[in-house]
Structures are given as structure tokens and as C-alpha cells.
Amino acid sequence: MSRMREDVTSSEMRHDWLADRWVIIAPQRTARPCDFDLVFDEPSGVGDCPFCCGHEAETPLAVASYPAISANRKKESCAEWSVRVVPNKFPAVNIPGTRPPMRYATHPASPVPTNGINLFKRRGLSGGHEVIVESPEHLYSISQLDPESTQTVFRAYRDRLRYWLTEREICYAVVFKNVGQDAGASLVHTHSQLIATDILPPDVQRAAERMQLFYEQENECLMCRMISDEVELGVRIVEQTPDFVAFCPFASRLPALITILPRQHQSQFEKLNDQELEQVSWLTHRTIRRLEKLYPAVAYNFVIQTAPSCRKDSASFHWRLELFPRLTKVAGFEWGSDCFINPLAPEDAARALRQAGV
Amino acid sequence: MSRMREDVTSSEMRHDWLADRWVIIAPQRTARPCDFDLVFDEPSGVGDCPFCCGHEAETPLAVASYPAISANRKKESCAEWSVRVVPNKFPAVNIPGTRPPMRYATHPASPVPTNGINLFKRRGLSGGHEVIVESPEHLYSISQLDPESTQTVFRAYRDRLRYWLTEREICYAVVFKNVGQDAGASLVHTHSQLIATDILPPDVQRAAERMQLFYEQENECLMCRMISDEVELGVRIVEQTPDFVAFCPFASRLPALITILPRQHQSQFEKLNDQELEQVSWLTHRTIRRLEKLYPAVAYNFVIQTAPSCRKDSASFHWRLELFPRLTKVAGFEWGSDCFINPLAPEDAARALRQAGV
User: Fold this and answer.
1) Residues A155-207: pLDDT tens digits?
2) Burial of A217 (0-12, 13-18, 19+ CB in 10 A)
3) A185 contact residues in B (CB cutoff 8 A)
4) Contact call for residues A263 and B292 (beta carbons, < 8 A)
5) Using CB atoms, which residue from A26, A250, A336 is nearest to B176?
6) pLDDT tens-digit profile of A107-121?
7) Is residue B189 part of a domain?
8) What are the start-end ranges of the E strands in A93-142?
9) Among residues 313-332 of chain B, which lie with CB inside 8 Å of chain A?
10) For chain B, how many structural domains are there in total?
């Protein structure tokens, strides 16, 4: 197959097989006028930052701590750790043992029909919510870390996912990162989060079901097939290592969205060995640097989706890291239709990312 | 049923029956610290705004124009119109007759398997994309219009929906509004948009299917049941008129999300009569003023979902107007799981909105 340029000069719809969802690729939309300047965040908050070294008492006690590598010691006072994992002080889920009484359970003020469909179904939500503080210094992007420290961060992801996904009550755990105000960050100091829950969120369940369905129909893993097609085609590839590949998916919902995948089938991120961790952390770091080269101080999210622990068909699950730069805003059409309008063709995004030297 | 206060002091999950999706209500999250200030947009762009009166030649020719009401004339030069509908110069869909050749059709550079599942499915997208300019003056919110002008805006929505939904090739049409940069607006001058397509977006199809399913199981319309339950309960009601009701839905994905519904079953917004238009435009205007009283210059979207014209079961569809204030950012967890964390319980939002005098 040739590396032919796939120009898109008019709107087209593309089907995201994994999510079973169509997106609109509309490159002509980029030409429209705008009253607003895209403002990128500058790092702030230094001095009273609870994640900085010396402020350890302002967070709950660490559940894991990774020692500083001596070569990277910059301040004597921060020499003890390079990565710290602490419980989130403001958890999105209820933490068993600490949860306050659920008042709604004793004051069920929403009508519950004695038969038929209940429009007011509610339930508790238990699990864990942790913060992975990625540096003792007040840095604002993981791209500012050196390769060894980045690898330590990924080791923390692996270890905490492994911890939570072997807990009895836990069904699902996800590591995610919010960088910049537009990506939902509230603190600038570089950090990630882990949420573990006793339920499986709808999109994750759907993705797991789709991967299983593909496997049943094609006798092959969906993501393995996708990797082989993308690598052969080349136009959407950003970068490859022997064991990993970064590319802009065919039906990207957002401009410059990037997926990083293990090239060999692997269901569980938490089973990565140290050599694989080194490669995937290196590739992620480079990919974020490419992105920041194109869009300085860009806000972004990334999410590591590993197989849920409560499904029997998890062998068909192929773990992935998804990187969502926040270059456009979700607008009314998207909220109303769940159909995203992406003004940057993934082929053009991938070409620009490849060309961005790092 | 009592108007008992439904306090939520810990996280809980709530099921959105219409979307068949769970959300996390996590009020304790509002206490967390933040390095960022919430910055609201100030109106700008006056002078070179293509939507201002006197600049009509900068937009395509109007497809509809509504005359100014004499009492509201402020400038002699803008006397001819109060609302103008023009084709979008940067359409998200291909406009039949104007579309450039689709190069992807002649350069299919993505691999297409001769049998089995196609991971690179694509198709064209045709329809219409219009802008409803809501005032000849450089206002930035529909709440700055007087009641008569607001009603004219809603008449334009009705007329354009009616036009598109009787076009043969069109399956779906939606009116939506983006106000403020955080809501995806690129121009500040108050305006809405209409997109009509020859396909049904996934969320709209799902909503239509869910409404039909509810009807089949309960022999009653889902939204009619919801209105009757919400009105009886009262805790989530914002305001009512004889024919319409505004409330914060039980399983709101975003803080202070508001739905406005006709109290009597109606599938098609475009069939509203003038008296109904007057009421719904008045209620929407008041609701936005309440929201702006609580959160000055807040960014928001609204979307009018009317029955698609290509489904046979559209009688079970109940049209709705959904108002999405953009007070929080969609972050990594949401992108990865499609499970939203809403830090403001809808009962608390509704109480605050009721108490905001307008």
C-alpha cells in the first residue's frame, strides 16, 4: 500500500469501530474567524503548592513513595522521593471506612414506582482515588522530567493499578492526567490521578464488549488488526519503538488525538515489565514533547485504559493510552448529538507531529 | 410527597434513563483548591463583527429575515431586520450543489478488507448549516434581548427547523447555541446555529430508541412521566409556566444543567404555535437570566432536540431544550469513561436558580 497523502477537502464522516460512533472530519472549519485568542496557561501556584517538596504534611500520608535517583537530586531537602502517591483529599468516590452516612438512603425523596421503570435509580460508589505526584519540584508537564523520572512515574502507575485491580471489590481502575485549566486541572504541579471503582463505566464496558465482539467475528484482536493496518499504511503513524506505536486514530474525535498501544497483544498495563515500562514512558514523553512543540503549553489529558478486572472476556481487551490535546472546545452540537466535529484530519495531525523535532 | 431537602453528602451514582448512562454526583469535590481563576469572557470584536448591522455584505445572502419591531428600533440604519438567518460560511457538513469533489472517494488510501469488518468506514455528510443572527446590535447574550425579540428568535428556530425537516434527504436537524469561548463560540455577537444532516447522530438515535422503549413498556411517554414526577416532587424545579417547565434533571452530567420541556406531549418543536413560542422563549430567557445572575457572564450551550424526520416511531419522541452551563471542564476521567463527575447536586442547583431573582 502506498503512503499516499489522504487529503480531505470536504466534510466526511468516519466510523470509530471501537466506540461504534461516527465523527465528522471538517477541515474547512479551521478557516473561520475567531474573536477569541487561544490562551495557554502559565504555571502558577508555586509557594503554597501542596505537592511541592517540603509540603508533604499538607497531603494525606503517602501510600507509595519512590526514592529519588541520586543523579537527579537538585535540592537536598527533596532528596527522599521523586514520585509520591497519596490519597486524594477530595475523592470522587466513597472510600470504604471513611465514608459519611449516605443521607439519601434514609431520605429517599425521589419517587420510586412500586412497579415498572424507575426513573430515579441511584446507588453508592466505592473505591479509591489517588494522586500520583510526579516530581518534588514545581514542574507543570511530565515532559519536563528526565527519562528516568518519567519511567518512575510509569512504574507508579503500574504498581497502583496492580494494587487496586487485585482488590476484591474493585471492578475497574484507570490512570488519567489533566494538564492545564482547559483540561480540567485544578493544580498545575505535574501529577496524575487514579480512580478505582466497584462499577464499570459505560464507555469502558462498551469498549470491552466491542473488542470481544471483534474477536469472536474475526478471530483476531481489534487493536492488533488496527496496528497492523496503520503501520502498513503509515499516514497516521507518529512514532514507533520495537514494542509500541503512537498514531492518530482514523476516527479521532478531537484534533491531534493520539493513541499509544503495545504492538504485541497485552490486556493489562499493570503486567508490563521494566523494559516495556522504559519504552512506553519514553514514547509517551516524546509524543507529549512533539505536541508541546506544535502547540506550546497546550492543555491535554491522557488516560490509560487497562482491562477491567470484573469481566470474564478480558483476554480480548488490548490496553491503550489515549492522549487528548484540548485545542478546541466541545460545543452545542457535540453536547446534543455525541457526534464530534474535528477540524483537523488525523493524517494532517500525524504528519505535523512527525515533523515536529524533539 | 414532601418537598424534603435531598442532601447529598457523599458521592452517589445516578442513572440517566434517557441516555442509559450513569453519572457521579460528588458534592465534596467543590471544596478542593484551585490554582486557576475562573475567567469569564468579556464581549469583544465590535467594529469588525460580520453579524452587526451595516456588515450584511460580509455574510452570505440571508435565507430568512425577520423585520424589526418598530418600538425596538434603536439605530435608523439597522431598522430593516431584528433576526437574520444566513448560511454558515464554514459549514460542518457538505452543502449539496456547492460541495468540492471528495478526494477521499478517488484516493481510498485506507485499507478496505475484501471480507470481514472494515475498520476504516467513511461516508459523505450532506445537509445544511445556518447561522441565526439574533440582533443587529453587538449583544453577547440572548438575555439582553427584550421579550419580543427573543420570541422572534424562537420563531426563526421554528421556521428553519420546519424548512429543513420537510426536505427529502434530511433526517435530522438541531438548533444549538454556543455562548462564550469555553462553550465553543468563535464570535461573541449573539447567534445560534442550525445543522441539518442526512444521518441521525448516535446520541439522538439512542434517545429516540429509549423513548420508544419506555413507551412500549409503560404505555406512557418517558418525558411526560418525568415531568409529572418532577412537578410533584418540586426539589429540582426551576420555574414553570402553564405549558412549560424548567428543571435540573436528576442525573445531570454537568453542574446547573437545565432542561426545558413542554408539559403536554409534543414531538416536534417546529409545530409550536405562536402562543407556545411566546411562553417557551419567555421561560428560556428567564432561565438564562437566572443562570447569569448566579454566574455572571457564564459560558453556556443550549440545544433544541426535536423528533428526527426519518424515524417511524417519532410519535414517542418528546422534544426538549437542554441548557448546558460550562462551569467545569471535562477532564481525563470523563474522556476515558464517558462517566461524568458532577460536583453540584441538581437539587442544590435548582434551589439556587429558583432563589436567583430575575
Assistant:
1) 999 999 999 999 989 999 999 999 998 899 989 999 999 999 999 988 899 99
2) exposed
3) 35-36, 331
4) no
5) A336
6) 345 666 656 889 999
7) no
8) 122-124, 127-133
9) 322, 324, 328-332
10) 1
Cell of residue B322, nine digits: 437542554
What are the grid coordinates assigned to A354, written together? 512527525
Say yes or no: B61 contacts chain A, CB-CB below 8 A. no
Nearest Cα of chain B lies from the Cα of A199 at a distance, in angstroms, of 10
Q: Could you give the residue numbers annotated as active site of B?
A: 191
For residue B205, which amino acid is it?
Answer: Q
User: Helix, strand or coil for residue B245?
Assistant: strand
Among residues A146, A114, A152, A113, which one has the least CA distance to residue A132?
A152
Asked whether residue A286 is domain-assigned, the answer is yes
Q: Which of A313, A323, A208, A195 minimizes the C-alpha distance to A261?
A: A323
The answer to whether residue B20 sits within a structural domain is yes
Domain range enclosing B313: 13-27+220-356
A162, A196 contact by CB (below 8 A)? no
Q: What is the CATH number of the domain that holds B304?
A: 3.30.428.10
Specify if A242 maps to a domain: yes
**Spatial contact of A159 and B304, defined as CB atoms under 8 Å apart:** no
- pLDDT (tens, 9 = 90+) of chain B, 358 residues, equals 333 344 456 789 999 999 988 999 988 776 666 666 555 555 566 678 999 999 999 999 999 999 987 655 555 557 689 999 999 988 888 888 765 544 443 334 566 665 688 999 998 889 999 999 999 999 989 999 999 999 999 999 999 999 999 998 999 999 999 999 889 998 999 999 999 999 998 889 999 999 999 999 999 999 999 999 999 999 999 999 999 999 999 999 999 999 999 999 999 999 999 999 999 999 999 999 999 999 998 999 999 999 999 988 889 999 999 999 999 888 999 988 889 999 999 999 999 999 997 8
What is the residue type of B156? A
Report the C-alpha gap between A266 and A126 in whole angstroms. 28
